[in-house]
Design a protein that fits this description.
Structural class: alpha+beta
Oligomer: single chain
Number of helices: 9
Mean pLDDT: 82
Distance between the termini: 23 Å
Shape: elongated
Low-confidence stretches: 1-10, 17-78, 118-129, 362-371, 527-531
Helix content: 10-25%
Number of strands: 29
Radius of gyration: 26 Å
Largest sheet: 7 strands, mixed
Length: 531
């Protein structure tokens, strides 16, 4: 997941790029687009960029009185814990699909730091650290009634479609199979640092308060379980196949689609194109892509130009020596077959999603294709989330964002790829029956990634953060909650509000249910095994 946080910068548009684009007489979209892609390769090699994530403003949750500092274990706490560049998200409590189940719940969460004894403080990765602990989140569900109670358990985890360490859930020691339901992108959007833009860049959550604001009213949970929209708006699809550079001899050979359009009645979206531009005054437009002969992945064979509204005219294909699609830079040889058909937006996105899914699911690639879907992610969920994301934030969405707008190029790969690797809450659902007058012991065991700062900056370099919420998003009635820490010889606690006091043997504490959030910030002890 940390690699994608660095990749956020690749698609991050800055003020100077906006001004550069404005300087062109035409609305030349590729100026910043191609620059960003060129920066991608450099960033992946050098790893010199510093991710900057801005916190979301939040209001107090109902019943929250704030958190008093607590000490113990070698460090003093502070009100909310530190903000990290890479925030892994809290451990959420179990909840149920059913309201008013009548069950009584007790919870004990254990942080096991035996991973530090094996690997030292953290594994070096993308200029930062990828620490992690084993978390066992245990529940006793008690049925005081005279009848069996059958419910659907729902265990939320913060993650994305690339999650490789899935929790193991057991009921009375027997592993439980679960279904995965995906919530939407948890983050937000922000501008490029100028007064003209508000939503061209992504903005991840950086603290638990962001999740609090997201989950308090129940709408995020409800939308996760809602059916995906049917995108039946009509579009005209131009597809390019049989792409070749014709042995032209140019490494950066480019193929462009030139066309004429009505600026007031036509809008263009693309998939598989690198850039383009339009002149609303003359009605001339262009979309282009690098051919990459012999280096294209199977999913990169898909090149779509999607027309919304009136059709385009005077279409012609032209090859160029490189991405500068200008007179005098033409090249003989680059070519492709072009077909046209009328379809719907939903069918276009489904074809794109299938192309991406078939190529990347369950497979790890090198370089720019190291973006894969975990094998547990089914196609229907993936496609459904793409439709939800498009319907919400796309160029024709309910809350359209500049990042995906027609003005900024409307590149569908941005929506499709960001559905795969953007942070979200994944809900693990499973049936469970609690016999009359009896209890069931449930445990969710998982590897919990640490929150951290990248080595290229930040005040918390070398520190790993972990946190949990006691009741956020849960409809269970808790009789009490406890927290424990074990296998902690290789770490020292710097800051916390749990109340652990390792020097005096206090490794298990009772939690206050009125306190919504607990945090623990640790550092590996120098000289421990694996250092």
């Amino acid at each position: 997941m940390q690699s994608e946080e660095l990749l956020d910068l690749i698609g991050e548009i800055k003020e100077e790029h906006i001004q550069e684009a404005k300087a062109h007489k035409k609305r030349r979209l590729p100026a910043w687009t191609k620059w960003a892609m060129g920066a991608a390769a450099a960033c992946l090699v050098l790893v010199v960029s510093i991710p900057i994530f801005m916190p979301r403003a939040g209001s107090s949750a109902p019943g929250s009185d704030g958190e008093a500092p607590m000490t113990g274990g070698g460090g003093s706490g502070h009100e909310e814990g530190m903000a990290f560049m890479s925030y892994a998200g809290p451990v959420f409590p179990l909840t149920l699909m059913e309201e008013g189940s009548g069950l009584i719940a007790e919870r004990t969460i254990t942080w096991d730091f035996s991973t530090y004894g094996d690997n030292g403080t953290a594994t070096e990765f993308w200029g930062g650290s990828e620490g992690g602990a084993i978390v066992r989140d245990g529940y006793r569900l008690t049925n005081l009634s005279e009848e069996d109670i059958a419910v659907t358990g729902v265990y939320p985890i913060a993650g994305d479609y690339q999650l490789m360490e899935w929790p193991a859930i057991t009921a009375d020691g027997q592993e439980v199979a679960y279904e995965i339901i995906s919530g939407s992108y948890t983050g937000g959007f922000r501008g490029a640092g100028d007064e003209h833009t508000t939503s061209v860049n992504l903005e991840n959550l950086t603290s638990w308060e962001g999740y609090r604001d997201l989950l308090t009213d129940g709408s995020y949970f409800a939308e996760a379980f809602a059916e995906a929209p049917v995108l039946d708006m009509p579009v005209i699809l131009y597809e390019l196949t049989n792409i070749t550079d014709g042995d032209c001899g140019f490494d950066a050979a480019t193929l462009a689609v030139h066309y004429r359009y009505d600026a007031g009645r036509t809008n263009i979206m693309t998939y598989g194109f690198n850039g383009g531009g339009e002149d609303p005054e003359t009605g001339e437009g262009i979309r282009d892509f690098f051919i990459r002969e012999g280096r294209r992945k199977p999913d990169e064979e898909t090149k779509y130009l999607i027309v919304v509204g009136d059709d385009i005219e005077d279409i012609r294909l032209q090859g160029y020596q490189n991405g500068a699609c200008e007179p005098g830079n033409e090249a003989e040889g680059p070519a492709a077959s072009l077909t046209r058909r009328e379809t719907t937006m939903g069918e276009v996105l489904k074809a794109i999603a299938q192309s991406r899914y078939d190529e990347i699911s369950g497979t790890e690639f090198d370089g720019d294709h190291n973006r894969y879907l975990n094998e547990r992610i089914g196609f229907e969920m993936y496609y459904g989330d793409i439709c939800k994301y498009f319907a919400e934030y796309g160029p024709m969405g309910e809350d359209p964002k500049e990042r995906y707008s027609f003005e900024w190029g409307a590149r569908l790969e941005d929506i499709v790829e960001e559905t795969a690797y953007r942070e979200r809450i994944l809900y693990l659902t499973f049936p469970i029956t609690i016999p009359a007058g009896d209890s069931v012991e449930l445990t969710a065991e998982q590897f919990q990634p640490a929150s951290f700062d990248f080595h290229c900056g930040g005040e918390n370099v070398g520190i790993e953060g972990y946190d949990m919420v006691t009741g956020l998003g849960s409809n269970l009635t808790f009789l009490g909650q406890r927290a424990a820490i074990e296998n902690y010889d290789a770490i020292e606690i710097l800051r916390q509000n749990f109340g652990f006091d390792l020097a005096n043997g206090v490794a298990e504490v009772a939690l206050e249910m009125g306190k919504p959030h607990y945090y623990l910030e640790v550092r590996g002890i120098a000289g421990s095994e694996g250092e």
